[in-house]
Amino acid sequence: MPHLMASLSQCNTTYVGNSSSNETEPEYEDTFLPAPLIVLLSIICLLIIAVNGLVIFLIHKKKILRTLTNMFLTSLALSDLMSGLVGIPLLLICFTRELINVCVSSVIFIRFTAISSVCHVLLIACGRYIFIVHSMMYHSLLTKRRAIVATFTIWLFSFVASVIQLSWHRLEEEALTEFEDKTEEIDIKYSLACIVLFFAIPLLLMCYMYGHIFYISYKRKKIDRQLKKNLQQPSRSLLHAWRGRSVLLITMVIFAGCWLPFFVMMLDDHRETKQLPEMQVWVHRLLVFVSFIPPLLNPILCTLAKKDFRQALKEVVFRRKARQCEHNVYFRSGSRAIKYEGNLEDK
Q1: What pLDDT was estimated at residue 244?
Q2: Nearest to 345, CA basis, from 309, 293, 294
Q3: 151 neighbors 68 (Cβ within 8 angstroms)
Q4: Cα(200)–Cα(117) distance, integer angstroms
Q5: For the residues of 282-313, what is the DSSP string, one character each?
Q6: Alpha helices, DSSP H only, in 196-241?
Q7: Three-state DSSP class for residue 22
Q8: Who's near 165: CB < 8 A, 6+ residues apart?
Q9: Which residues pair with 336 in a beta bridge?
């Protein structure tokens, strides 16, 4: 498949200096990931499986966690879990065995889970935004049916967006050595579209929504005393604690810092195959590890940082009976009461 696996195939094969032009030029052979880095990637794979599996286990074990809000978090954990169960093992096989079908499958699958993860994080941000900014319309806008449709749409859209590149590529052995200008041009346009659709637009939307959330939180802090009389729990639960704000900021930093290199590397994969300088090899190695940071930290920042999940973790894993938290938040506007399933301070 021309240039679909350009980076992997060119990095994972032997790096040899161009001795034809200069016999004294140093030659070296090296695999893309040496044994210590393969071990490190395997450890990251196990950690991804452990933390995301823990999230799914807690939701399965504790009925109180099976809320509409946590459904998005469960779907995100499943997406990240798949990157550890399938994506990384396929990538390791590609690096060690250099089987083209396995390499293509690993690239497609990792891209599928990456797009799915990005869309899930954006969906979670939308849920938080609707509750904070349009709280009066929260339950009318975010219904169970719409949540299920949105989740299903993300999985379907992520799958189609990741495999569509196969429609203009061939996997025949002879096609691997051909350079097709038309295919190369389509690949570049596809990579640019991925950068815009799955990084730039989600990042701008999340910056706007979380910025608006911070602004609303700041304004509500000024009228905290007035809200206390309408709340059935301390007003601190309605306002984002600094810890919650820090989690949102860290989420944004990880989103921008990890997914931008991932999608930019997609664009770099489709340039004409050339021998890579040693420094660029290390850059590619670093980017491989960076792309697996979100699946590892998403369940910690988006899920295990929530109070209800922390208490469930104490009860189920550490066998401690935690103080039961108030699971529903009520507040009133005139004669109308609004209920939110979860703890806002951890949203």
Answers
A1: 64
A2: 309
A3: no
A4: 15
A5: HHHHHHHHHTTHHHHHHIIIIIITSHHHHHHH
A6: 201-222, 224-228
A7: coil
A8: 4, 108, 187, 190
A9: 333
pLDDT band at 159 (very low <50, low <70, confident <90, very high): very high
Amino acid at 52: N
Task: Report the alpha-carbon distance of residue 310 to residue 271 in Å, rounded.
Answer: 46
Single pTM value for the model: 0.78
**pLDDT tens sequence across 83-105:** 999 999 999 998 888 788 898 89
Q: Render pLDDT for 270-297 as a digit per residue (tens, 0 to 9).
A: 665 454 454 577 788 888 899 999 999 9
Rounded to whole angstroms, the Cα distance separating 108 from 4 reads: 9
Give the Cα separation of 110 and 116 in Å (integer): 10
**CA 197, CA 217: separation in Å to the nearest integer?**
29
Grade residue 178 by pLDDT with cuts at 50, 70 and 90.
low
Q: What's the rounded Cα separation, in Å, for the pair 118 and 259?
A: 8
Q: Which residues contact 250 (CB under 8 A, 6 or more apart)?
A: 301
Of the listed ranges 16-25, 92-101, 148-157, the least confidently predicted one is 16-25
What pLDDT score was predicted for residue 142?
A: 86
DSSP string, 120-177: HHHHHHHHHHHHHHSGGGHHHHS-HHHHHHHHHHHHHHHHHHHHGGGGG----GGGGG
Identify the residue whose tokens are 């695999």: 31
Burial of 321 (0-12, 13-18, 19+ CB in 10 A): exposed
Cβ within 8 Å of residue 109, ≥6 positions away: 82, 83, 86, 87, 90, 162
Between 214 and 222, name the one with better pLDDT.
214
pLDDT tier at 182, thresholds 50, 70, 90: low
* Residues in Cβ contact with 62 at an 8 Å cutoff, skipping those fewer than 6 apart: 312, 315, 316
Please give the single-letter amino acid code of residue 222.
K
pLDDT > 60? residue 243: yes
